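Methods: example folding runs. The two proteins below were folded one after another, and each record is reproduced exactly as written to the output file, sequence line first and structure-token line second.
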Amino acid sequence: MGGRTVSVYVPLHVTGFFKPYICDDPLRSGSVGAGLVLEPGLRCEVRRLDGCGPRVLFNGREAEIQPVNLVLEAFGSGARGVEVRIDSPAPIGVGYGVSGSAALAVAIALSRLAGVRELEAARLAHAAEVRALTGLGDVIAVYEGRELELRTRPGAPGLGSVTSFRVPRGISILALEIGTMHTAKMLTEMRRVIEEHGTQALERFAENPTIWGFFECSRAFSRAVGFMPRRVEEALGRLGDGLIGYTVKKGVLMAAVEDGFLEDAAEALRRHFGLCRVFRPGGGVRVCTG
């Protein structure tokens, strides 16, 4: 017989530029930088069953998601016999911050089942992401940030610091996958160049903390660290005046366009790269219990 069910909605997050901070304490580790909090996000349903569990399904298939597994381990007996169903509009491990959003959603759902404070659950999710080296700033970005977020102090929710900026209405975000890159590899093999150019991007963004400034700084960062392929520059350079800006983070190409230009831009990107996803800047975690 099934038990109580908790559903949690968490937005996604794509970082434009960042500077990592990693220390012995995962709660104090994290990153500073800026990114977009995007909707639609993922939905997670956690249900307590009579079986041994826990069992995790991602978009209908059983999955091993390391930070989610670490969250389940942290809850111990509180996660025994649970089934986790995660439905995401974007793939995991590419650059949409899906693993961080999933870890946060599972942690918040389990906190409702186990009677744990939500902030403590959010911190567990952040620590799990850091330990798994699947992300540094995504959890606090989606938990505390809205639309265009700037992480000014590294760390878990309640310890790090986030400032949010509104994005003007009438702007959509097109995103698509152009490759893969594991976060652990990025943080180990590219850390020095990321730190150098992340610092420069932060300084420039402070002069123009807008969606236009974000994409200008993000594109410069992407070029400098080697995320931006030449074929992307060539394709995006032909999109026209409706393009606000674009960048590449890991394997995700992200472009902001005016809504009046959305259909033409999306079709152009599909011709060049294939599947194109449409998002809106947004934010906010939502919980439903049943």
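Second run, written to the same file directly after the first:
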Amino acid sequence: MSMNKFRVLMKVVELGSLTKAAEAMGFTQSGVSHMINSLEDEFGFTLLIRSRSGTKLTTNGEEIVKTIREILKWNEHLDQKVASIHGIELGTIHIGTFTSVAVHWLPSIIKDFQQDYPHIEIRLAEGDYREIEDWIAEGRIDCGFLSLPTWDVFDAMPLHQDPMLVLLPMEHPLSSQASIRLSQIENEPFIMPSKGSDDDVNRVLERASTKPDIKYTVGDDYAIMAMVEKGLGISILPELVLRGQRRNIRLVELQEPYFRSLGIAVSSMREMSPATKRFLNYVKNYPKL
């Protein structure tokens, strides 16, 4: 069995298509099909269900892919370790992130990191907190930015305390105040981030024993800002999300400060690859966070 066959299978699983996988990896479709057939012959069972709409894993395929993902991860670790012995920093890091970190932190971090480590490739996967946690647990990514606390089984490194702010329409009666108590907004129409992105707001409300009048649940932070601007309600979001926004809304601090604790997590600090370890140390000491 070869690593190339495993990589081809994982690309087919990722893209859901033999044709797309072939295009992405520079192979012919027949070549990809041959490698998948070869793996199925070696394993003695079918890995993929092929149809006009694409491909998906069989039940046996779902089981075997978990092990293949681990094999590829440790093969990558081996390549990186051998390279580091020769004084070369190389490898690929798969990083999970969410929008505000992807917009305000990662462009500068990646630019500076790749100037210092040009042979380390970075691949990003964007999702919400729950998706990133699942990806770490499944081994789909090497590390992920998250709002802490996260799962107990992960190793996490705190990075930044991000203040939570109240969003108000400009004409709102409370918009002239320098700060607001949560009790003052309990009866206000509230726009809530949707499930998967609501952890930060829920922590604030639960700590203050506040139950707002939730009128809308919205998945996009910028949609929340637009709705507040139009007077459809108020909301609470982290400062990093709001940084640089130009909407006609008022941002007010809470009298009792609340923070989103931003950090980066891995499945195990002991088992992470040399390239991932290098990236985490770089982020930990990055002066612009």
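Comment on the second run: Residues 1-71 form a domain with the Arc Repressor Mutant, subunit A fold (CATH 1.10.10.10).
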